[in-house]
Amino acid sequence: MSTSYCFPFGRARREVRVINQVVLILIIAGGAALCRGQEKTALKDENLQNSSSSVQPPSWMTSPLFHSPRVFAADYNEMRSKFKVYIYPFKKNVTNYMFDYAGADGPFPGGNYASEFFFFRNLYESDYITKDPEEAHLFVLPFSVFKLRLALGPNAVAPYVKYYMEEVIRKEFPYWNRTGGTDHFYATCHDLGSMVSENAGDLGQHAIQVICPSCIYLRTYIPNKDMSYPQIWPHPEAKPGGLPAEKRNILAFWSGTQNSRSRVYVKSIWEEDEEILLGGGKVLMKKVRGPDYFENFRSAKFCLHITGSQVHTARIGDAVKFGCVPVIISDHYDLPFNKILNWKELAVVVKESNVAKLKQILKAADHPRLYKNVEALRRHFTGNTKSQDYDLFNMMMYELWLRRFTIRPSFAMY
């Protein structure tokens, strides 16, 4: 007797047949052979459904803002108590390029490198780490794009990662080889880091990539396997929050570099509008930085996230921090936490082709409701020196928990 399960996973479909307790993994359309604990599977799991009835979600965790508050709360609690990851030990010839920030006081990287730093710092100081690789659900590839770029230069990052994978991970440890790397992950936010997998064999095809440029048409990004990392730029001098909804007097705000056709298009239509405040526009002549930048976020009802050289920017994180409703103008962006959060309840998503209707769309939106939801979800987009429940770090760990193996495949031939 056989039981068949079919999983649409990223750009491939895999069929797993269990026959006489022997697991045969058939790769139907490319990619790595995977059988992970996805949320859709969790929603159908009878045990999880039963346990969810005994776990009460926090008062702010409501539907429809969350797809399934009870299931998420129950699964999150299980993750916090059971999830374990194994970090590869440092080797003499690679230590200088690994994350080793546990207990560090600084200096800390900022800008595009801040997100990966906070993730690894929180990870090293967490209870998720195990020293027993056989206990681990996932394995961490701890190379630091920030350190590699500073020490070796941008052109040497990808070749070094290739060396690290081929000469250290594959040759000195058995764990990558036994699953083809499908229970491994690495994290980086800078565009440079997301490109390292292109020249590192099957790193991008098999491992879970925790990256910010999560474009569904990026050839190295596989939705559902890989993870969308919300880019956060730390502004420790700027306190979170802003004006209450009824006192916000700017309809929409954006400031940044004109480095994409979409941004140029938005400016060409709306630069003279007095309700939509654009940095570099004729109303707001300069590109806004510093205190004025933060004050405009605190005073605007809506803040634009416009695709630039990549689909992601730090504008979503900034908007949520200051209570401004994000407006996503970035086609093909795999939004962070979209299996958990209903983005229609906390943001306005506008097709790039509908930019000419932007003002009409924003005025028709229910701003008070969206504002309330953004305020409730700020914790999910907040990085803390010491991680807290449901903050950015633990939300990322939950996303990884969803990608753990329920059955660990083997590439060995019997």
Description:
It is a single-pass type II membrane protein. It is found in: Golgi apparatus membrane. One of its GO terms (cellular component) is Golgi membrane. This is Exostosin GT47 domain-containing protein. The protein is globular, with a radius of gyration of 22 Å. It is built from 15 helices and 13 strands. With 414 residues, the chain is an alpha/beta fold. The longest helix is centred in the middle third of the chain and has 16 residues, at 157-172. Helix content is 31%, strand content 15%.
Global outline:
globular
What class do helices, strands and sheet pairing give?
alpha/beta
Give the helix proportion (percent range).
25-40%
**Helix-strand topology string:** EEEHHHEHEHHHEHHEEEHEHEHEEHHH
Number of helices: 15
> What is the strand tally?
13
Which parts are unreliable, with pLDDT below 50 for 5 consecutive residues or more? Answer: 1-46, 281-285
Q: Roughly how many Å is the radius of gyration?
A: 22 Å
Measured by DSSP, the beta-strand proportion falls in 5-15%
Strand order of the largest sheet: 4-5-6-7-8
Oligomer: single chain
Quote the average pLDDT.
79
How far is the first residue's CA from the last residue's CA? 21 Å
**Main beta sheet:** 5 strands, parallel
